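Re: the 430-residue chain
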Amino acid sequence: MRREIRKVVVLGANGAMGAGGGEVFAAAGIDTVFLARTRDKAQSGRKRAEKLAKSEALARHITIGSYEEDLARVVPEADLIYEAVSEDLALKQVYFEKIDALRKPEAIIATVSSGLSIAAMASGRSESFAKHLLGIHFFNPPNVIVGCELIPHAGTDPAITEWISGLLRSKFGRELVKTTDTPAFCGNRVGFKVLNECAQLAEKYGVAYIDALIGPHTGRAMAPLATIDFVGWDVHRAIVDNLHAHTKDEAHDAFAMPRYMSELIGRGALGDKTPDLGGFAKRGDKGKPNLILDPTSGTHNGHGVEVPAVARKMKALHHVGRYHEAFELFATDASADADLMRRVILGYLSYGLNRVGEVVETATDVDRIMGFGFNWAPPSALVDILGARRTVKLLEAAKLAVPRVVANAAERNQPLYDPALGDMGRFFHG
């Protein structure tokens, strides 16, 4: 297929993913048009992209406009239309109807949706639109995080999928995973299962305790509740509500949004993006530590807690590169703290690798998107550190489903993690 992307039009360019995706395109030297409801909003998106790139020179590849004044002018010129408006299917369909009437026949339409149905977006559109529509799910911020999901729907032209796949890998340097058109695709489905489960557990055990117990020593770049604050409570709710409504698998209950979070969202609390109201943490006065949320009262009245002994010991072992010893402790420590840690981390491993054959083709696909999209230790890396046979026993003891790929690795006594994904030690922090 002889194609070239010479011009990109970004809708929703003032948002995090619009500006972030636009930065990726512009940084590759592609003429990129930032569109938003107003030119001022589009200009704020351009400034955001410049800040991500740490370069004002990026602006030479970016022009701005508004939907009302410029959509009809620039969409017919675009080789790629990149949609990043709010995560609302009805709103997206309004813009897709306009794009369908304006686009040239060979133009590709990509949505950065974090988990809505691509097929539903194609519904009611022309045959040409449907053939050229797919999901390109960057992770935030896309100039730093290279993990990317490509999501064709049943009507996407396979030649388009193959071509854009090659482009994302070669020109934009993406660590790409192709997924099926299922709710939240792979990365968010697996990741937000863990995040929301931790939010549920916080109501019983406390916010500071959960973040201390399931912190970077378990193989994630940031503690889970701090991650939700960073992502935004509104984004978190959109993803887990979609999953709770449209999936009926073994983790269904883990996607139920905690009531205390819904109540605080109703008061305007969205995490880091609302510093005065906070989320799981709220900024203290100048020079004072952050205040921690008490989920039972809905107020910020606490500080940190003493790190559980098992977490403290694992951190110390990771700090000197003794990852296998850290996870030996994880597997054998008899404390209640370790029991809860195992419940969450083994649940991640089980749920992630059970998506093989449903959402992605291989265990390496799950590993790639969790490692390069979330910067979490890939499930297969944890299997290999623990040992596949021991992993099976731990999963059975925890009454969690044993993924077929793990059972096969245990039966053959073979490693599961692909070393081509890099040294697994980078996922563990002291």
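The radius of gyration is 22 Å.
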